[in-house]
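User: For a reading group we're discussing how well predicted structures match intuition. Take ABC transporter ATP-binding protein. Before you show the prediction, I'll give you the sequence so everyone sees exactly what went in.
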Amino acid sequence: MAAFGLEKRYGKVHAVRGIDLSVTSGRCLGLLGPNGAGKTSTLEMLEGLSPPSAGEIRYRGEALGPRFRDEAGIMFQHTALPEHITVRETLRLFSRLYPRTRSQDELIARCSLEEFLDRDSRRLSGGQRQRLLLAIALINDPSVLFLDEPTTGLDPQARRNFWHLIEDIKAEGKTILLSTHYMEEAYTLCDEVAIMDHGQVIALGTPDALLARHFSGVVLQLPAEALPAPESLSLEIRRHHDRIEIETSDVNATLAKLLAANIPLNELRIRGRTLEDLFLELTGEALRG
Ligand SMILES: Nc1ncnc2c1ncn2[C@@H]1O[C@H](COP(=O)(O)OP(=O)(O)OP(=O)(O)O)[C@@H](O)[C@H]1O
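Assistant: Thanks. Here is the predicted 3D structure of ABC transporter ATP-binding protein, as structure tokens, for the group to look at:
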């Protein structure tokens, strides 16, 4: 699936400003960016639900048509589920909408729905609801699956559980397009990421290649109070509210400087670079969750 010169305008709002994307069959592409970056607008165009203001979209070399609709599955960011019916009945209801469906038992097992099958779908926890919405998106056994911020609002454990389900679905060979503002989610699930900001793609590639292209070295973290006057050390330092971070590609030399200045290192931590750092590097702004 590919898109060229994609744009979306809502009146005066130019939400998507000319982006090119492609995802190969069986791979997972992540659209990553802060609130308002244009991820949902882009996904809705790729899903064939919202006409682009400019640009074109191709699926298996053709414009989006019946074949695409037959082979696509969508998990929306907000979905109203029918009320007063159980999870099992909800699945049955949605199954009737498709000529070809995956077996219910398989869907139930794939999305771990067993324990709440007979519960009213309004009584589900956040994680359970997302698993049901995922099952609904998989009913027609799609080749390409769209997930719009599937774990927003979930607690960390539920988010990780959901990631495992997506990994299993990926292993079935499905193509996945996913939007998220969680860098770790993109890093865990996506073969490629498109980092978006203000309606544009500002970086595109595999997570590791993007990090390697922009960074060398690691980040040393210390509590803010450990370095009362860090400026005097001529190190590359970034201040956060409770800690400072020192970027370095020569850990030995940096540690030697800190030791020479009698900086207490008991609480020193070392971390690698993340997609979060990359966003900060590219835009000068932290990602707003
Ligand atoms: N139907 C609409 N009418 C007018 N403006 C819209 C509409 N949908 C989105 N926008 C605007 O377009 C811009 C991009 O929104 P979009 O929802 O695509 O971003 P997003 O990256 O998905 O954000 P979020 O992470 O909050 O879902 C925002 O400024 C938003 O307010």
